[in-house]
Amino acid sequence: GAVVSQHPSRVICKSGTSVKIECRSLDFQATTMFWYRQFPKQSLMLMATSNEGSKATYEQGVEKDKFLINHASLTLSTLTVTSAHPEDSSFYICSAAPLGAGNTIYFGEGSWLTVV
Amino acid sequence: GQQLNQSPQSMFIQEGEDVSMNCTSSSIFNTWLWYKQDPGEGPVLLIALYKAGELTSNGRLTAQFGITRKDSFLNISASIPSDVGIYFCAGQEVNRDDKIIFGKGTRLHILP
């Protein structure tokens, strides 16, 4: 089946620094990828829609200047958490839909971010 | 953000029992998806439903896309220990540009 890979799977960073998370579709192309955040024992909350070659679309309440999204190719989207704070510690998950594959969405393995 | 109404929130069952969970929405969906998430991992797609009334099976799992397009259920038959985890329903609203929204999850526990 379709594979979406995220890197790194776990990252610890100091408060005030920035960290980048990559989301790659390994065996398909995707013009759109999605970034979710999941706090412990909660559901996935959509943060933003990453559009290849154009600006990302952010959900209400998500700071676009803090969560920078770049979708430079049909197989890669990156999420950069800038000036990270401990409250940004969370599980970040990306998803993507293969072109022409209907509405099926596949998820990456997720990235644990801990800000200390 | 908007979420689906998923129930029950958690279930404690004996191994071998059947399980049923469901999701409802106040708006019409054109896709219903069911995922399972193990601790520390991303969700894994179990079943995808694209048409109202569609009934689809994947091994011991069966899911249906409600006729009203506002609900879906997932059944697991003859549960086994590896079924433990969190099950999420997810759906795409009509005209929402492929956005997927999620239920809050059903946490399945299997008693020894």
Structure description:
The complex is a heterodimer of chains A (116) and B (112). Helix content of chain A is 0%, strand content 50%. Chain A is mainly β and 116 residues long. In chain A, the strands form 2 sheets. In chain A, strands 2, 4, 5, 6, 9, 10 and 11 form a 7-stranded mixed sheet that branches. Chain A has a 4-stranded antiparallel sheet with strand order 1-3-8-7, with no helix packed on it. In chain A, a hairpin with a 6-residue loop joins strand 4 and strand 5. In chain B, the strands form 2 sheets. In chain B, strands 2, 4, 5, 9, 10 and 11 form a 6-stranded mixed sheet that branches. A 5-stranded antiparallel sheet of chain B has the order 1-3-8-7-6, with no helix packed on it. With 112 residues, chain B is mostly beta strands. Chain B has no helices and 11 strands. In chain B, strand 9 (85-93) and strand 10 (101-102) form a beta hairpin. The radius of gyration of chain B is 13 Å and the shape is globular. Classes of the chains: A mainly beta (116), B mainly beta (112). The interface between A and B is medium-sized, with 28 and 26 residues.
Indicate the topology.
The complex is a heterodimer of chains A (116) and B (112).
Chain A: E1 4-7, E2 10-13, E3 19-25, E4 32-38, E5 45-51, E6 57-58, E7 67-73, E8 76-81, E9 90-96, E10 106-107, E11 111-115
Chain B: E1 5-7, E2 10-14, E3 19-24, E4 29-37, E5 44-49, E6 55-58, E7 61-65, E8 71-76, E9 85-93, E10 101-102, E11 106-111
Parallel strand pairs in B: 2-11
Antiparallel strand pairs in B: 1-3, 3-8, 4-5, 4-9, 6-7, 7-8, 9-10, 9-11
